[in-house]
Batch of 2 targets.
Target 1
Amino acid sequence: QLQLQESGPGLVKPSETLSLTCTVSGGSISSSSYYWGWIRQPPGKGLEWIGSIYYSGSTYYNPSLKSRVTISVDTSKNQFSLKLSSVTAADTAVYYCARHKRVTPPDYWGQGTLVTVSS
Amino acid sequence: QSVLTQPPSASGTPGQRVTISCSGSSSNIGSNYVYWYQQLPGTAPKLLIYRNNQRPSGVPDRFSGSKSGTSASLAISGLRSEDEADYYCAAWDDSLSGYWVFGGGTKLTVL
């Protein structure tokens, strides 16, 4: 059974960089069929896709966040990571990692991790 | 402000049929498939409908999806208390380099 687990600091200061890692178990991140992505959900609000990566390192991002986002993959550890720079309070959200195919949205999700941006 | 527009709330009594709408544009719903997610409180979203009207295995046939032009709908028949959740539509948007867009979500209350 595929499982995804987010990890990282739950509190980040304004203007700093948010860093999260997603560990994939029960399956290989190097599968040729899937992309690995990040989605966030501010408290009480809707979902926002951040970006995704293929095991080869190919990425695509939400245009509204592209200038601040970097997603990377470490196939040796079966992990992929998110970095979001210059954060503000508006970046406070539950961050989910997920699996999807190129032409379909996520089918497997992590449980999510709350990241609060505050001094 | 979400790219896809949903009503913030919907409600119904047990056994009723309710529908939730999702409005987009030619660059997303108008030219791509629509997906629907169900999110129970405190949990990650669960895929409910894919490719406009297909149900993953395990999803009851009480849930159905449809699409027309730049709008889509999710219908839930035989409403049950456990259907009380947030529902989100999603679609690929062809603008710029292409990206996934979601609706703002609809909170369904079972009265």
Target 2
Amino acid sequence: AQSVTQLGSHVSVSEGALVLLRCNYSSSVPPYLFWYVQYPNQGLQLLLKYTSAATLVKGINGFEAEFKKSETSFHLTKPSAHMSDAAEYFCAVIDQGGKLIFGQGTELSVKP
Amino acid sequence: GAVVSQHPSWVICKSGTSVKIECRSLDFQATTMFWYRQFPKQSLMLMATSNEGSKATYEQGVEKDKFLINHASLTLSTLTVTSAHPEDSSFYICSGLGRSYNEQFFGPGTRLTVL
């Protein structure tokens, strides 16, 4: 079975600083990987996805993620944090039948 | 992009009553729909997978008689929480998966509070 681990349940950065949210996956086959953002009391919004094409994936709102097979990682980065980036972020991998397996989530706080 | 709606967005009910939540794919046909539950400060937990015209497949530990799922058309799935109790209070999110997509599209969620 596939799984996803997000390191750090809470990350705090200053406005303008680099954002790095970590995600490691476990998969026996080439995975489809996703990053979602969730604002309070809202559904999930797709930030970006990896589907076996380019290993560096660019998403919305200035986020990007790099798929590293050797490290089984798919970390999410943004060069400069904005206050509006404060939210919960979820890494996920597609399992059989199209099911999504989610990581535990990382809450990002941005300090002024 | 593909849009999924949920109704209602929030509901408050008394213990022992039943609540129905609708999930609609507005601009695509969702051959498969998923229902998730999310408790505060936690990740999404898959409750069940439903394919249009067939019975839902429930995840281990989810009571199928308590959480009734119907996927009668390619654009509508419903989740009915029967005889709701306070411990069923949660944020319920649905998603749809179309034939030609390799990603799920999520609804905005329904906040259920059982008094």
